[in-house]
Every structure is written in C-alpha cells, then in structure tokens.
Amino acid sequence: MSAGGRGRRARQADAEAPRPDDPSGTRTAELTAFLLHISGERRLSPQTVAAYTRDLSELELFLGEYFGTGTLLWKDVDRLAIRSFMGDCAGRRGLSRRSVARKLSAVRTFFRFLHLEEIVDANPARTVRTPRAERTLPAYLTREQTERLFATLEARAMEGGFQATRNLAIVELFYSCGLRLSELQGLNLGDVDLVSDRVRVLGKGRKERIVPMGRLATAAIRRYLTRRDELAVTAPGSDRRALFLSRSGHRLSARRIQQFITRFLDLVANETGLSTHSIRHSFATHLVDAGADLMAVKELLGHSSLSTTRIYTHTSTERLKKVYRKAHPRA
Question: What is the pLDDT of residues 228-274, one digit of tens each?
Fold first, then answer.
C-alpha cells in the first residue's frame, strides 16, 4: 500500500477523534491531519502536541503573510521560506536559538509527514541548518539553600494542615527523584510504591522508568496520604487516581505547583533564574558533585542521550573554578 493510502486510512480511523482546538478556524486540513496523527496514532503527550500546535500555527500565520495569498499550499513552501520563518523568529520576535531550533524540529517533522502522505515532493526543511544553541548552565540550589527550603516547608507542615503537608511531600518527591513538572503532576496513587521506596514515572515520549525514592520523601508522602484520606471524606467527588490533589479534591494543576514552589524558592534564595525545574537541576548537580556515575544519573533523569546529562559535569567544573579562584593565593 502506498504512503498516501496509509495516510488516508489513518485519517479515516481518526475521523471520530477529538479535533485539536482551532479558535481561529483557519487551520489547513493538512495541519489538522498531522495533529490528529501525533495525538491519536503516535500518542504523544498533551504537552508535546500543544507545542507542535503552537509552533506550526505560527508557521502557518507567517507563511500566509510571506506568500500574500488567500490559500496556503504546502507544496509551494521551499527552503527559503522556512529560513525566512526562522529569521523572523530570531530577529523580529527575538526568540532564543534554542526556541528557534525547537520550531525548526517541529517544521521538519510536519513536512516529513506531508512527504509520506505524498502531499509534497520533498521535505524542504531537511537541509535547513539548525541554529547552534547557546551553552547555558542550569540554575540550581546550593546545599545550604536546599536545607533552608526543606526547613521552611517542614516548619509549615508541622502545623498539620493539608496544603502544607502536601507541599512538603511534593518538593521532597521532586528533589528525591529529580522529576520533571509534568511527570510529577501526572502521578497516580498506584505509581508510588511505599514498600519498596520507588516511583514509576511516565516521561517524555511516554517512556516509563522506575526511580528510587529517599526515606524522607517516603515519610513525607505517608503523612500526606493520611491528610489525603481525610480530604476524601469531606470531598466525596475527589479524584481517586491522582496522587496530589487540590483542596477541592481535583488533580493539582502544573500551574499551581509552579506558583507555590516559586514562592518558596524566593524565600530561600536571592538568585534570579530559579524555577520549579531548578529542583530537578539541583538533584542532578548534587549527585554529580558527590561522585555519582554519569550513566546512572542519566537513567534517573530519563535522558535519552548522555550528552544531555553531561551539562551537569560542566556545572560542577564551573563551581570548582570559582572555589579555586577565590581560595588559591596565586589564582
């Protein structure tokens, strides 16, 4: 069967699937088919689908202005048009090289789909050079700042309230396991094994990994689960599957987790650039500083490539340089 035949059959199978939101109503049929393909057939995460939707909708808008025609034909898009889109992102919009590179990756994947569907003759984005990303070291907490963070959270949790007890459990789990925000927010009760002290995590690309959990994180989660059971009595319609709940009994949103963690980070650290993700960076940095094997850290973080994990060796090296320059009499 031809690629076009496979594509038509896939679109027929997805015909009854929920269509991605298109408030403007101007999305082309080809882009809609692609978004249905990655959400339905490939089953990419909602966050990944949202990123593809955003990046490719921006491409559509740009190309409409670039060609100045009422109807956008994807077969007319060439390498120069895509380079112009990247230039617009970096120049007029001032996006970072990393953001531009991500958008180019989305464009390549989309045109690969169009090529397989026999909608275009070739992938014009294939030969467009990816911008070299700036090398930036991740922001992280020092050991002292980490201790202050947990001391603050523990003091609040001692009062026994649901929210403070839950917040301590969240940050303990973040730091103990080095999770991404989306991974923690999506955890269910069945993913946490308090007997063997480990947690089952669904990471990027729906790849599953098992991560060990520290004793302090286990203890914090046990205390939280007691409060969670009490909440279920007062909020009978609460989510039975989700691990972390709001006071109304619904799964806690990623935005709400970001808000309270950022607030506590501001209390214990004056540095700019710290975010929820900084706790994951702190987890990895402290492990590497203590001599942990880089391959082990890679597996714990759920990285697909060791090169991604190596940035934490650069973080450690930079800190050693600062200590050397400050302490050595002839540095």
Answer: 999 988 888 889 999 999 999 999 999 999 999 999 998 888 766 78
Question: Taking the alpha carbons of 323, 326, 330, 331 in that order, is the dihedral positive or negative?
Answer: positive
Catalytic residue status for 156: no
Q: Is 280 a catalytic residue?
A: yes
- Please say if 204 is a catalytic residue: yes
Annotated active-site residue 298? The verdict is no
Instruction: Identify the sign of the CA torsion 224, 225, 227, 231.
Output: positive
Q: Tell me which of 27, 180, 228, 286 is the catalytic residue.
A: 180
Q: Is 209 a catalytic residue?
A: no
For residue 50, the one-letter residue type is A
CATH topology for 143-327? hpI Integrase; Chain A (1.10.443)
- Judge whether 143 counts as a catalytic residue: no
Domain boundaries, the chain: 3-116, 143-327
Whether domain 3-116 has CATH 1.10.150: yes
